[in-house]
UniProtKB/TrEMBL annotation:
UniProt source species: Bacillus safensis
Listed name of the protein: HTH-type transcriptional repressor CzrA
InterPro entries found in the cross-reference section: ArsR-like_HTH, HTH_ArsR_DNA-bd_dom, Metal_resp_trans_reg, WH-like_DNA-bd_sf, WH_DNA-bd_sf
Gene for this chain: czrA
GO molecular-function term, one example from the UniProt record: DNA binding
Pfam families (UniProt xref): HTH_5
PANTHER family named among the record's database cross-references: ARSENICAL RESISTANCE OPERON REPRESSOR ARSR-RELATED (PTHR43132), HTH-TYPE TRANSCRIPTIONAL REPRESSOR CZRA (PTHR43132:SF6)
Stretches assigned to the HTH arsR-type domain: 16-109
Amino acid sequence: MKEELNTNQEQERMELDEESLFLVSQTFKALSDPTRIRILHLLSQGEYSVNDIAETLNLMQSTVSHQLRFLKNLRLVKSRRAGTSIFYSPEDQHVMEVLEQMIHHAQHD
């Protein structure tokens, strides 16, 4: 019985359902864009508004808004309203860890 359970668990781990496959591919798509990587890397350091992100990264506000919408739809970032300002921060720490590991890997000699 224990052997059968282990075999079933192994088979479940090997199979990838369509929804998971789509989400994984979309997450890699998000991480394939240099502007989104820059935004996510900045957000890993703290909460920022669209204007703060645009100013810090020297990007147009419309570009930042567009990229944040894309990242928010994938649940990679979340927003918080404070008065008239909206602040963004990472929502998925797993993806942020992968991103930081890839940055470290790229910078490692």
